[in-house]
């Protein structure tokens, strides 16, 4: 079986003269779920965007199995089995829900596997099946988030990267997203979750990394970090 471990070593990201990420290292093994938490400006989104090749890396290496992702264009990541759910959803507002989903399968084509993937997405998010003909721009924020996740799943990724999936959602819709991510984790999909919502992160992931000012401040199991007094005080308000 091909190694599908994501290995990040000494990653650095700079914007002009400002260093947003410095010396960040971690791995996501097959079937593992890892969370990146931290305050605004901690470097979470910059880390994720650098992994996807959406911003230049100022240093370090990113590998997926034997592949150096520094040599892979962002548009080709999906062909390696890496799915990406960006911050802000970025659905195609002028297209119906189902066409948005089908666009997620462009790399693998629209044959029988595509129909199976579509059925799986509709099972995961039944509301999308009910609204398959509605324009994506007419959906609520939570429904658009489900659509963005479903679109990424259409390519049958082995690793899914998610950037702030709970942002701007009501507690009820956060619970829906939480349940979907827990189900995907249970099915063996590797997850890398970037979130400000530490409680959601600890519920979904097995390991977590705390970023502060672009650097790794703490790492550990999500259960241990959730019980840490410093994390409870700063991120959970307890």
Provide a brief overview of the structure.
The protein has 238 residues and is α/β, with parallel strands linked by helices. Helices cover 34% and strands 26% of the residues.
Secondary structure layout plus pairing:
Elements: E1 6-15, E2 18-28, E3 33-37, H1 44-51, E4 59-64, E5 67-68, E6 82-85, H2 97-103, H3 112-124, H4 126-130, H5 141-153, E7 159-163, H6 171-186, E8 190-195, H7 198-204, E9 207-212, E10 215-221, H8 222-227, H9 229-234
Parallel strand pairs: 3-8, 3-9, 6-7, 7-8
Antiparallel strand pairs: 1-2, 1-4, 4-5, 9-10
Describe the protein:
- The chain contains nine helices and ten strands.
- The strands form two sheets. A six-stranded mixed beta sheet has the order 6-7-8-3-9-10, with helices on both faces.
- The protein folds into two domains: 1-81 and 159-184 and 191-238, P-loop containing nucleotide triphosphate hydrolases (Rossmann fold); 88-156, no CATH class.
- By secondary structure, it is an alpha/beta fold.
- The mean pLDDT is 93.
- The radius of gyration is 17 Å and the shape is globular.
- Helix content is 34%, strand content 26%.
- The protein has helices at residues 44-51, 97-103, 112-124, 126-130, 141-153, 171-186, 198-204, 222-227, 229-234; strands spanning 6-15, 18-28, 33-37, 59-64, 67-68, 82-85, 159-163, 190-195, 207-212, 215-221.
